[in-house]
Amino acid sequence: MHVELQTPPAPTPVWPMLRTLGTIATISGLLVVLADQLSQPMIADKQRLLTERRVFQMVPGAVSKRDFVVTPEGRLEAADSGASGDPVYAAYDADGQLKAVAILGTGSGYAGPVQVMFAYDPGCQCLVGSKVLKSNETPGFGDKLDFDPAFLKNFEALDARLNDEGTALANAIVTVKHGTKTEPWQIDAITGATISSRAMGKAANQAAQRAAPAIQRDLAKLTQPN
């Protein structure tokens, strides 16, 4: 009986296969990098417009803004100067007069950090507005931080005066139990949302402690023509 032997298939060349896979991986990587580079300007512009809208909502009469940073050394510098630090946003009316400075702070809430933007008026050295940027607080309670009329009255003229040295607040901003506010630097808490209210107090104190000394020290940079 004749048995026909089958010739095994030739092995797939390893090097050409690896070269093809490498080429595909390289092209894929380049496409990802290219897509990221193309999308970054759009993301940055979208964030800029969102910040601008929030500032104008919080500061009535503001129609333009300039971006600054508070450096780790406590100096106020223009954001486009290359300096790094905590961002602050100076808001101006149609005549170019400074209305307020938007400053940022974070406090620990019931369900995580509460990030807040505050309007700081250098003239009265007080906070005159607030806007919650990020919060995971319980719906129905945490929402009141932005909409409860009685609570928002805390930020009509919340005392943020500096000490005699101009290095920190004369009195730390704190949240007190609802109905027990006696000082202009105290925040009257929302009944049933004490932890969220305390988060606002911590955020306000953090924001003012960081930014107010630099703003007062370098106020001329905010008021001089752009």
TrEMBL record:
PANTHER family: ION-TRANSLOCATING OXIDOREDUCTASE COMPLEX SUBUNIT G. One of its GO terms (biological process) is electron transport chain. It comes from Thermochromatium tepidum ATCC 43061. SMART domains: FMN_bind (SM00900). It comes from the Bacteria. The keyword Electron transport applies. This is FMN-binding protein. One of its GO terms (cellular component) is plasma membrane.
